[in-house]
Prior knowledge:
Number of strands: 0
Strand content: under 5%
Shape: elongated
Structural class: mainly alpha
Helix content: over 70%
Radius of gyration: 18 Å
Oligomer: single chain
Largest sheet: none
Order of helices and strands: HHHHHH
Amino acid sequence: ALPTTFLWNFxxxxxxxxxxxxxxxxLASADPARAGRLAVCATVGSxxxxxxxxxxxxxxxxxxxRPLLGWLGASDATLANFMGLMSRYGWLFIVGxxxxxxxxxxxxxxxxxxxxxxxxxAAALTLGRGIRFGAVVLAIRAGARVLQRRISPE
Length: 154
């Protein structure tokens, strides 16, 4: 269960589309006592996958992203301003993308493309995914306790 959770979240965090809780939720529901360890595996896998997405943005931006943006009319000054904002406030955007319907994958690629420092990116992604997966585990554990009380004889 732990390797499956890690692998799914690595794949989903990098390039594979799909819900982040696809593996975590049913496995944590089946064994609430292991839910915390599953959430840690999901977080680590997701951050490592996000690192791959960040790398894709970092490597691919100069080759295709910058020329495309230039062709669309974005000046070097505009790009420099955006890169500065991303360096200063990008961590908020990363955390926000993990807690909302925004595509964390796309945000990760964008962070790499604008040169967001990898340690800052990884810390923000870890914080956001940790909050998200922690909330899933807490909800599952709370639901399991409620169900246990309802189905157990008094």
